[in-house]
Each structure stands twice: as C-alpha cells, then as structure tokens.
Amino acid sequence: MPFLTRFCFVALLALVSVAGKALAEPVDGGHARVELISEREVATPGETVWLGFSFELDEDWHIYWKNAGDAGIPPAMYWDEATSLPEDEIGAIEWPVPHTIEVVEGEIMDYGYDDRVVLPFPVKIPEGAGETMRFGGTLDYLICKDICIPESVEIETVLDLGSRQVPNVKQADQIAGALEDVPPAFEGQARLSEQGETWLLSLTGGQVAGMGGKARFFPETHDIKHAAEQPGEFGADGLQLTLTPASDSPPETLSGVITITPEEGERIAFALSAEQGDPLEGTSGIAASDRQAGTSGVSAGMMVTLLSLALLGGLILNLMPCVLPVLSIKAIGMVQAASRGEKAHLREHGVWYTVGVVLSFAVTAGVFLALRAAGQFVSLGFQLQYPAVVAGLALVMVLIGLWLLGVFTLGTSMQNTGSGLASRSGNAGAFFTGVLAAVVGAPCVGPFVVGALGAVIDKPWPIVMAVFLMLGFGLALPFLILSFVPGLHTVLPKPGAWMERLKQAFAFPMFLTAAWLVTVLGNHPAAGATAFGAVILAFGVWLMSVSGGKLKAPVLALGAALSVFAIGWPIVTGLQEGPEEGESESYASVTPEPWSPARVDELTAEGKGVFVDFTASWCATCQVNKRTTLTKPDVLRAMADANVTFLVADFTRPDDDIAAELKKRGSPGVPMYLLYGPGASEPEVLPTLLNPGMMKRKLGAFETASLERDQQGD
Fold it and tell me: Phi and psi of 667, rounded to 5°?
C-alpha cells in the first residue's frame, strides 16, 4: 500500500474514533449537561443492558420526577427512526427517589432532582442483533430555578455487540448508583382509609416496624394536595400518614413512594400501592418528628421548656429518699469545712461535687445514646435492671454506712476533716459523692424529668445530652450555691460532739438504701423484709449503745419496741408464701395478671376495659403510686365495677416486649399507665403521678357508659 494511501486510511480511522468520542460527550442544553450513557461498551445478544439519561444541572436549578407535583413536566424522550429498536421495546425509566421542592409555601409543592441525577432504563438486546445497536433521539425537559425554561437536546449512543461483555466502568458506576436510589417494592401491607375530611395511609411490615423519624408520601397521581402537611405517627408495627385529598373520593388504589428519614441515619424509601380498607393496627402511638421546625424537630421555645423541666426535676431529686442518704455525707463535709472558715476549699468541694454529678449524667447519656444507636430501648434507671449492678450498689451503701459509724476510716475520711480539706483526697471524696448521688438518684425521677426525657428520647444526640446535663446540674445546684454563699460558716452550726452522733445516725439511711436494693435484687418478699428488719434492729442497738446507759425509760422502751418490730416484721409480712412465678399479688378483690400484648388484644376483643401498670421494683415513683392509689380498696372496687382488668408489666428485669411498648408510647421508662376503654383498640396514657380521685373518675365514666349501653339494649 502506498504511503499516501496508508496515511489517509489511518487519518480516516482517527476521525471516526474522534467522532465516536464526540457522540459520548454530554450535550449542553443551556442549564444542564445531558448524556445518554450505557453500562456496556460491548454487550452480548440476549442480555438486558441498562442505559440512562445523565443530567448535570447548574446550581439551584432542578428537573422533575415522573409526577412533577403542582407544576412542572417530567423529562420525555422521543426516539428517532434510526434507533435500532422500536420504542415499545425500550424499557421505561426507573425513577430514583425525588425530593420536595416548595415553590410557594402551603400552596405549590413540586417533586424533582437537582445537582446530578441519572434516570436509568433497561434494554433487552435481541438474540439476532447485528454488530452494533444505535439509540438516539430528542430529550425534552423542563428545568426551573426562579423561572422555568423548556430545553431540548439531541443525544445518542452506539452499543457494540460481541460474544463477550465489556463494561463501561465509569458509566456503569453512575447507573448502578441511580438504581440504588430507585425505591424497592414495599413487602408489607398498605391501606388507604377515609378519616372525615382527610385520608389515612397506614403501613405495616418488617421494613417499617419499630421505626421513627420523618415520613413523606410522594404520590404518582394528583389525588392528594401536594403542598399540604402530612402529619404522621409511628407504631410498633409500622406507621401512618394523614393526607389531604384533592378529589371527592379516594381511588381504589393509591400508588407512590413512601420515604422515612430517621433522626440519625439516611433516608429509606419504598414503592407501594395502598388499597382501600380499615387502618392497620400497630401503626400509631409516637408522633413523627417535624423537620420543618428544624433538623432536631424541637423549636427554641420548646427546648427552653424542656431544659427548665430537667433543671426543676434535678432540683426535686435532692428531696427524694434515694438521694437523701448520699447528700447527708456532703452536708457533714460542708459543716466541717465551714466551721474552719476555709472558703476556698469549700468552693472547691462544691465544684468537684458538681463535676461528679454532671459527669455521671453525661456518662449515663452516652450509654443511653450508644444503646439506642445499637437498636436497643433504654429506659430511666436501666442500670438497676442488672443484678450485678444492684448488688454492687448495695455493698457500696453498706461500706459507706460502716464508715459513717466509724468502723473504719478512708485516709482522713471521705469528706475530710480539719486540715485535710485541702488535700487531693478531699476533692476526690466530693467527686465520688456526686457520682453516687447521680447513680442512686436515677430510679427516683419525677414527672418533670419523665416529661423532659420523654419529649427528646428519639431526638439527635446533642438534645438528649443537653437534657441529661441539665438534670445533673439541677441535682448539684443547691450544694454548689451553698459552697459559694459568703459568710456561710457563720450560718451553719458549730461542730461538736453532736456532729459525730449525727454522722453515725446518717449511717442508717445508707443501710436502709442497701436494704431497698436487696428488695430489688431478691425475688421473695422475705428478702427485703428481713433486710429492713435488720437495719431497724441495728438502729435500736446503736441508740442504746450511744446513751452509755443513761437513756431514760421512754427512750429505752422505744429502742426495745424497734427491736421487737425488727424481729417480728419479717415474720408477719415477709416470710409468708410469696406469689408463684408468673403470678401477681392480690389487691383486695382484684388479682392483677401479667401483661402481654396478646392478653390486651384478647380482653379488648371481649369488650372489656384494661388498666396496665408498667412498673419496676427499683422505680420509686411506681412504688409511691402503688401504695397511694393502686392498692386502695375504693380504687380496686371501682375497677371491678367498671369490668376493667388489671394487668402488670414488670420491668424490674429487661423485657423486650415491655421495652417495645414503652418505645411505642414515647415513654422514657417506667412508670407508665395505660387505660383502655371497654373494647378500645388504643389506650389513654395516664399521668405518671396517680391519685385515687382521678382513677375513680375515669373508671366511673366506663361504668356509666356500660350501664347506658345495657339500658339501650333493653
């Protein structure tokens, strides 16, 4: 071949190569670069190949989903006659999940994409295809920012065919990424129900059970108002959304995409079709977060309220019986320090005590968040569900009590005396006292704390941490203030022999706390009764010993009576036969039954009312409600008259079913009280502090309604 001929041949090949590459370059439509891409450079006949329309949009511009919403047009491809396959043999676009585009707040809402997006579609290569296949034509799309502009581009690609597949790595990755964003089919149940002037979309199934966060439904049609809010709730088995209809009656089937965005984690989505029917059970209980109020779902005003409740709850913890014994140690140290006029060291103790309290609550919050991230439900006082922790705390209380009695010393003592106040062990003692106060205070939380933590239990970690820290600061605040009050040493009493006696007396609240922990640890009532009896007996012996034989007859009689009571109490109240495992103790004429979701369903199906007591032996508020309300004969008679069954959910030890129910109802822990009306599928969540009057009023309303139904039946 002559040189000139060979040169022209090579040049021609180069031009063809350049032209081929030019075909693969994106086409600039004005505000977007558009390209027809393929996952293959060489495909094999008989296989299905994924192609895609690739868009790179200018900043702040967007195109539309297959349902554009209130305004807009989705992209449309018009294949030319040179395309190797008929249009009806080219697969439809698999649409990735869109996002909302609020055009006019509350009035116009669109659905679409911005930045970069690939719209993939499948093509089946015929068995008898030749050496190449061409796909091309005109792609029209509406692209919008402040204004909307229709754009049109001519795009094409040529696919070589051979006996072996050759991938186009870059474009295959783009298409694979787009296919990952295409929502999979929802495998559970979906229902559409009329609820007055709104529609209720409810979903159940393993893909959505137990989730929380923010949900949004993207309809494929215009049956609902796109710009309307979609209030949602989550339940143990799924979720429900309230939709605002745009038509007079619901369609037989409502299709679209449901998206769920957890507070922590990435958005998930499913394609579904909901048929008309009754709302699905287990899809309500916990309100979905409102992301329109901010990423946290908590407004600034609400956050101030929650932190105020946490601070108030921490202050009230200082009055709780769980905490008072520990605070007695701190009080002794402050009196001793103030008596010597050592203001700087007194302030150091206040600061170190505060650090101990706040750091303990921070650690508790960290464990809470870590377990929550692992998918576990964590409640207030969860550490006392573990016998090893309870036993360890009981032994610590006994050791502190023995130290207070003077049986042994810890260096210059835990809270220091005299000149030892400035030593390192003094600060360590104050820090340890703060830690101990925080640990034993957990089961004594009141309604202020429960309200604050219940509102943020599923919120992002900074909000949860802030509430826990404020709770700890509230617990430490009284002693912190006293540590910095000028002239405090002139207000507090002077030390003397009375202080040693008071210090010894404070040992017995420690022993009582240890005895209470034994009741949490023990399964038989005799365990706790014997422990309390032993403490009272020890107190009587100590009272007589410190008198040096000089106590008057009335005091001696009191000590003897306490000793006799200490011995007799376990025999009378504790050593009786305890309930069998799985049974509950009887209250008057009512015998509570163990709770289970199946038992609730069974009773409500029979038309009965149900009261559920979510409790734990380590929960102080639970025990107060039990003694002041739930064991009162008049309350129990009202329960029996209203045909209400009493169920007990004991959370003393970890229980997955109870944890799921607490989570479903948005409760941070026990106590929680549910009251189901006769035959009702959903309960009323009662306040955490009960009283007999409230209970009798609610139960009386059930009894009155039952009588009215009976009279109407007659």
Answer: -95, 135
